[in-house]
Amino acid sequence: MSQTRNVALLSHSGAGKTSLVEAILFRTGQIPVPGSVEDGTTASDHTAEEKRRKISIHSTVNPVTWRGNSLNIIDTPGYADFISEIRAAQLAADAALIVVSAVSGVAVGTERVWRTSRSRELSTIVLINKMDRDNADFFRTMDALTETLSDSVVAIQLPIGQGEHFRGIVDLLRMRARVWSEGDEPVEGDIPDEVMGLAQDYRERLIERIVETDDDLMMRYLQEEEIGADELTGAFNRAVRANVLAPVLVASAEKVMGISLLLDFLLSAVRGVEDHGPLPVESGEPPGLGADRPFLARVFKTMIDPYLGKLSLMRVLAGSLTAGDSLLVDADDVPLRVSHLYRAAGKEFTDVQRLETGDIGAVAKQDRIGTGATLSSPERPVRLAPQELPGPVMALALVPRGKAEEDRLGDALNKLQQMDPTLLLERDPETHETVLWGMGHVHLEIATRTLEERFNAAVNTAAPRIAYRQTITGKGDARYRHKKQSGGAGQFAEVALRVEPLERGAGFEFVNQVVGGTIPTQFIPSCEKGVRAALEAGPLGSYGVVDVRVTVYDGKDHPVDSKDIAFQQAAAQAFAEALRQADPVLLEPVALVRVRVPDRFTGDAISDLNSRRARILGMEGEGSVSSVSAFVPLAELQTYSADLRSFTGGRGAFSLKRDHYAEVPRQVQERIAQAATSTSG
Fold this sequence. Notes:
Blueprint: E1 4-10, H1 17-27, H2 48-53, E2 60-66, E3 69-75, H3 83-92, E4 95-101, H4 108-119, E5 123-129, H5 138-148, E6 153-155, E7 157-160, E8 168-171, E9 176-179, E10 187-189, H6 193-211, H7 215-222, H8 229-241, E11 246-250, H9 259-269, E12 281-283, E13 296-305, E14 309-318, E15 321-322, E16 326-329, E17 336-337, E18 341-345, E19 348-352, E20 354-355, E21 360-364, E22 374-376, E23 383-384, E24 394-400, H10 403-419, E25 424-427, E26 434-438, H11 441-453, E27 459-462, E28 469-472, E29 476-484, E30 491-501, E31 508-512, H12 524-534, E32 544-545, E33 548-556, H13 564-581, E34 584-598, H14 602-611, E35 615-622, E36 625-633, H15 640-647, E37 653-663, H16 666-680
Parallel strand pairs: 1-3, 1-4, 4-5, 5-11, 6-11, 28-32, 31-33
Antiparallel strand pairs: 2-3, 7-8, 8-9, 9-10, 12-23, 13-14, 13-22, 14-21, 15-20, 16-17, 16-22, 18-19, 18-21, 24-26, 24-27, 25-26, 28-34, 29-30, 30-33, 34-36, 34-37, 35-36
Helix pairs in contact: 12-13
């Protein structure tokens, strides 16, 4: 069996994950002193942008050795903007260590990583951090965990003191205490009298939860037989590996208190690769996992290193890979030979000859390998089912600052998307803008800064123009004669046509009802061509015209001067006049938005949505969180990511999906027209 355990540290922003990584690196002897987020000296937040913002942006792998065993501690961002980094870490992990602040408690981000970790069937562990801070409250936090997350959450440790009085931890499985003195290692001993009553109460709850997972132990418990500590611990560890119970531990990362107990627990209770159930596949037989199986790995992250180039980070799920071996990418038919293998440690990559089951490693400069790819042995081709990522929610229009930047931008954006699959690039066919979509304003700010600082492709940014359209709500009828005489060959054509509205989304329909040859047959396509050209703008501005039927029913020609261009011009002018008669209106894109906020912000969220011309569809309660669904005009959502974060203190989240076009209210239509006029002026 693999001796390597991969643990993803997950939380809402500000719970102290990066400081916890520093405490683990210090306790395992990897660094001489813990670094500081404030000072920009941490091992995992190593980029200039992370140091500048004092937040984690990228997930990083931090290998440590503890009591002869290997652990890969994967630090992740807390901001939901960087969801691709969070999900990548979950793909690479055997366990999710969800860090919760003893001060601020459970937040929307806590619930989000809890749900996704459980869906990935990771061993899920909760660590209540910051027990040394003012206003730290273990008991309030425990109540919130059980009410909000799951009744599978169960405490296996109790704090001795809280806030500035936090000085020790009670191990409820062994009923022993560890107490710290200033500058000393903790001393193990009896449980202090001050917490003995609480410890006995919580111990009884823990035993009840453990025996519920084992029929034999339950029978013995009901018969009041003695159950040994080793039996209880063994049953508990099995329940954690099976994801039946989620243990809660306590710590102070800043004071490096509780870290050894945490590492001991991770070694004993976290599942390995072999403990996972069958992985869903797109092609091939569901693979067996473990060291005795053919090689299998999943690429969970792509990096662009200034020296090594493109790096594809993988987690080995089965077998092993040696430098020089061949493998298949997504079960294709062309073997790929890998000449160099690397192992990651923070920002450093070390050349290695072999990767074993459970290892996290990388291959370099392989264009065929992308994020999410399955790497398999040629003797057992398989393609694992892809991971689903939420769609982007905010966009910026990009304009290169100069010709040199324009030449570099395409390649830079391609590299950026390889590194972050939640970034979406599109060329809007209606506004003709290059638009970059991301998960929020911070996400996009960092993406555009990366374009400039790493790829030398500076851009100016702006809110994308809204792709309004126009249509008609009534009918119109017009006739236009085009006559031009300039000394040489003349032009003549007359076209009469009607316009009427179609159902929303029907597009455009051209009908020929000319009888008697008043417009010769060869010029009917010219009329349609002229009308189609006129669809690009209408009476309300330079917005495309949609959902309209045009019927040409009469006209005149000239035996010498009628020609294709003349009928195009006549049809276009007749169409423009008919539109003006037919009550034209603007249409705007509308998105389906789902907003998740803590209950106390529900009223604020609904009020804010109403101010954005939303049509509320419904609201659902999910524990202490409310989920509100609404149709909202896309024009009203351009600042929503920042606004939601502001009025919820960063605890709100939302998803967005463009859904349909709807008529713009008249007063708003006038405002749009005035803005367009002032801009063009």
